[in-house]
Amino acid sequence: MTYRVCFVCTGNICRSPMAEIVFRARVAEAGLDELVEVDSAGTGGWHEGDGADPRTVTVLEDSGYAGGHTARQFQPSWFSRLDLVIALDSGHLGALRRLAPTEQDARKVRLLRSYDPAAGDDLDVPDPYYGGTDGFEECLEMVEAASTGLLAAVRKDVEGRVA
User: Fold this and answer.
1) Given 3-state DSSP classes, what are the helix, strand and coil percentages for the chain, each rounded to the nearest 5?
2) 133-162 helix and 15-29 helix, angle to the nearest 10 degrees
3) Confidence of residue 163 (pLDDT cuts 50, 70, 90)
């Protein structure tokens, strides 16, 4: 049975596709790509059908990541097929929990940086959209740091299913 993770930010062109691409690479490196499916979406549909922001693409490519992306809007009906919904900031966390059809679905929603012990109390990944490339680089650093802990949590869940 496939374990499904969806990363969610506002428009699905900056933070969530970055997290999706980085985490998919981590999953593949861990040899879990046959067991774990990774995608992303936005809380809004403003950019639906668009590719990732060119700055996102550049920062990812400069760091050795590859992968295409098409923006889409998160749908409440997806909760039933998802195991984990990863919000990139507290605004997304609240919006997703309000969309959740059940309490069980609401418990699937987590903040990405909650998987980074060094994050402390600052669990939001800032939106880099209105800034320069340095904001996108900072976003990538936060995503990469949290991906290690997230991968450990997903691996534990996947192994629990197989056992």
Assistant:
1) 50, 15, 35
2) 50
3) low
Tokens of 105: 């679905």
* Residue 78: HSE in the Cβ half-sphere, 13 Å Cα cutoff: 22
Distance CA 66, CA 68 (A): 7
**What are the tokens at 35?**
């067991």
Residue 55 CA to residue 52 CA, distance in Å, equals 8
Distance (Å, whole) CA 134 – CA 94: 27
Residue 11 amino acid letter: G
Catalytic residues: 9, 15, 127
Q: Which tens digits make up the pLDDT trace of 75-99?
A: 999 999 999 999 999 999 999 999 9
C-alpha 66: how far from chain center: 16
Cα–Cα dist 104/10, whole Å: 23
Task: Give every CB contact of residue 31 below 8 A, 6+ residues apart in sequence.
Answer: none
